[in-house]
Amino acid sequence: MLDGNYIETLEPGTFNGLSNLYYLSIANNMITGLPGSIFNGSKNVEYIFIQNNKLHAIEQGTFEEMGKLRELNLSYNQLEWIKGYEFLTLHSLTYLDLNKNKIKYIEPGSFKDLQALIDLYLNNNNLTVLPDGLFTKMKKLRGLYISESNVKKVVPGALGELTALKYL
Q: What angle do CA 54, 57, 60 make, to 5 degrees?
């Protein structure tokens, strides 16, 4: 764990080749961005905790080789947009925490590859609209938490495919 330090920047390749790494926590630092090739070769990581940093964006390819990742915590950062490429290959992800960011907009379909996702946390963001297609193909999602996120409108069809949903 590298929690509670003063890390501001992570260079490309910082965690490359850590083939036995299972759990990574870099929480409570001052990290502003995640380079696209930061985890190359770290294919066995199942848990990543990056909460309470200063992340503004996630570069394309950051989690590209992380097919075994089950839990990802990006809460308490400064993310403003989810563009659709951030979570493309995370087919095993069951828990995603994006609470307490500044997310204004999520591209419809951004979560479509997260077919194993059970819990999605979007509390305390700046989402004013939940557009149609936002939660496409999320057949296993049981918990969707969007409290205190300034939602003013839920477009018909935004929640339509969430057939397993139990908590909203």
A: 145
- The whole-chain average pLDDT of the chain stands at 93
User: Nearest-5° angle of CA 92, CA 115, CA 137?
Assistant: 165
Q: What angle do CA 101, 148, 138 make, to 5 degrees?
A: 75
Domains of the chain: 1-167 (3.80.10.10)
Which tokens belong to 67? 């097919």
pLDDT of residue 145 exceeding 90:
yes
Any residues with CB less than 8 A from the CB of 103 and at least 6 apart, and which?
79, 80, 81, 82, 122, 125, 126, 127, 149
